[in-house]
Amino acid sequence: MKELLLSAYLLGISFLLNAAKTDTIVVHSPSMKKNIKACVVIPENYNNTEKSFPVLYLLHGYGGNYATFIKNFPVISEAADQYGMLLVCADGGLSGWYMDSPVDSLMRYETYITKELVPFIDSTYATIIHREGRAIMGLSMGGHGALYLTIRHQQMFGAAGSMSGCLDLRPFSNNWDLSGRLGSIDTYPENWEENSVINMLGRIKNDSLSIITDCGVDDVFISVNRQVHEKMISLNISHDYIERPGGHTREYWSSALPYQLLYFHNYFSKYR
């Protein structure tokens, strides 16, 4: 019995020594004049090789923060080790929507992600610094943010994923502080038209992006996800689209996340 307990103890030590680790970093944002935290999940072999690693950025939903993925989805750390990638859990504010607000100059989360966070990560960690080594995904608010940022910065991100994303903002003008980011839809309809992912799909260049979206059939956003799927088909944009049982819940995202992580692993593998 003592030998079994000792073996289990030693295995536990070995697991702790070899498992992915998480750095909590602080990045100063000149555009928003504040410091913003992020989590960086680092694979176990990071310090044992001279190679550079691909990076997957993860964007939380409305009301979340940089620690949402770490606290709720242990598969994140497992994926870092299994797939040999860095995962960066960004902060988008409680309701920043990952855009530079046209009505609130203090909300500059597009600038933060693309011009402040990404350069900081590339200068601090051993990353692949071209678009083939960089992808972004998110859930809910972050699902819209991931596709929004990728379409607007195709030179930076080569792949994007959305889980339960609010991919058309217009039907939800009275929800989730969207009017605080875009102004009243009656007063500033152009802000809503220009900043909804569904209206940006035509900007995807020559089928150059790898895209995956999924949504639960009982989700409040299932209709807009289906509309985006149909529009991408009509525009001949290659993509993966998944519907599965479930709603806008942590249980759904826990089941969907491993498929998204595998998708990005396969994307990165094409360029290694």
Q: Briefly, what is this?
A:
The protein is an alpha/beta fold and 272 residues long. Helices cover 38% and strands 19% of the residues.
What this model shows, in words?
The chain is of the alpha/beta class and 272 residues long. The chain has a single domain (20-269), classed as Rossmann fold, CATH 3.40.50. It has nine helices and eight strands. An eight-stranded mixed beta sheet has the order 1-2-4-3-5-6-7-8, with helices on both faces. The longest helix is centred in the last third of the chain and has 20 residues, at 250-269. The protein is globular and about 55 Å long. The N and C termini lie far apart (46 Å). Mean pLDDT is 93; it is low at 1-18.
CATH topology (level 3) name: Rossmann fold
Mean pLDDT: 93
Helical/strand content category = alpha/beta
Which series of helices and strands comes N to C? HEEEHHEHEHEHHEHEH
Report the uncertain regions: 1-18
Task: Return the domain count.
Answer: 1
